[in-house]
Amino acid sequence: MALFVDIEKKLGSFHLQVKFEADDSVLALLGASGCGKSITLKCIAGIVRPDRGRIVLDGRTLFDSEKHINLPPQKRRVGYLFQQYALFPNMTVEPNIACGVRKKKDKAAAVQEVLRLMHLQALGKLHPHQLSGGQQQRVALARILVNEPDVLLLDEPFSALDSHLRFQLEQEVRQIIHRFGKTVLLVSHDRDEVYRFSSNIAILKDGKLDAMGAKHAVFAEPMTVNGAVLTGCKNTSPICRVDDTHVFAENWGVTLKVPAIAPDMTHIGIRMHDITVGDGENALDCEVAEQIENPFSFTVMLHPVGSKMPGVIGMELSKADWEAVASDRLTVCLPPQAILLLKD
After folding, report:
1. What pLDDT is attached to residue 104?
2. Where are the alpha helices (DSSP H) in 19-146?
3. Which of 63, 114, 252, 339 could form a disulfide bond with 55, CB atoms 3.0-4.6 angstroms apart?
4. Is 170 a residue whose pLDDT tops 60?
5. Orientation angle between helical segments 133-145 and 163-180, nearest 10 degrees
6. Using one digit for the tens of pLDDT, what is the confidence trace for 131-144?
């Protein structure tokens, strides 16, 4: 166990209550704005004091409400990358990094070494306003890594960057994480970013863990409506149970065969790419309500023929596949094995 967190914190009407463990890999905290992702990082870093609980890092207790332990941030060996990087605008790169060095001995040598590792040697005499967003991020990471922290906390690390820079910078950050080789917590609301970076995912909703597990398992079976939506499922509907393997989807006004359904399941979902054109189990005759062109695909919005409900079902096809079947009316199949069974 590298990091153990079991904390509660009340902020007005908001109540954070999370418990999880993270090993020496990347754990992503995925959730909508205001769900408690960033406040969790701040509690681990010592910026915010939890009301109750424990935080243990590599056997060292950082916080324990019962034992009245609350180490200050500078003693926690936690590296926290803020969303806006928090560089000092009146300092050049080298003193910005030097500010993070806690050991007075060999400070200059430590700064030069991290500049080399982060490929920042040519930028050492520049001020933050002279750097690109990606360069500022690398300087902020260098200031963190110069102290060899035991855990790295990344709070929406790409939110301040233009989209065209993200791909290159993601590659650089993945290399940094690989070299770091310890526990990393990544906060994000971007499911693709989370999938590319993490080994495990914890989904938060209203201050509580909604789901947690290996990323492949969480994406395959998110278990909750919130989890399905956050992992990219665009089609969800509340259901009425017909029997053990059939439900009535209230949004779409159709009865569908599903895998054996547990009593606590209240919704179903299906990802747009799992819907196929043609006959099969759960075949639906549909009118094409709208076709939306994307750069490399079409999103086709379908309304089941004869349904009295206003809901539509989204399907995604490549441009070539859509051009081959384009029509005002289509028969599509919602394979039972692709239907997600979900709790509210």
Report:
1. 62
2. 37-45, 93-98, 107-117, 133-145
3. 63
4. yes
5. 20
6. 988 888 889 999 99
Neighbour count for residue 207 (Cβ, 10 Å): 21
Written as one letter, the residue type at 187 is V
* Position 29 pLDDT exceeds 80: yes
- The per-residue pLDDT for range 249-293, each reduced to its tens digit, is 999 999 999 998 888 999 999 999 999 999 999 999 999 999 999
C-alpha distance across the termini of the chain, in Å: 31
List Cα–Cα distances, 204 to 42, 67, 78, 142, 200, in angstroms. Answer: 15, 28, 22, 29, 13
C-alpha–C-alpha distance, residues 186 and 79, integer Å:
12
* Exposure on the CB side of residue 177, measured as CA atoms within 13 A: 23
For residue range 45-101, list pLDDT tens digits in order. 999 999 999 999 999 999 999 999 999 999 999 999 987 788 899 999 999 998 878
pTM (two decimals): 0.89
Distance, CA of 265 to CA of 246 (rounded, Å):
12
Q: Quote the longest CA-to-CA distance of the chain.
A: 77
Looking at residue 99, its pLDDT comes to: 84
What's the rounded Cα separation, in Å, for the pair 221 and 213? 10
Q: Please, are residues 206 and 216 in contact by the beta-carbon 8 Å criterion? A: no
For residues 85 and 134, the answer to whether their CB atoms sit within 8 Å is no
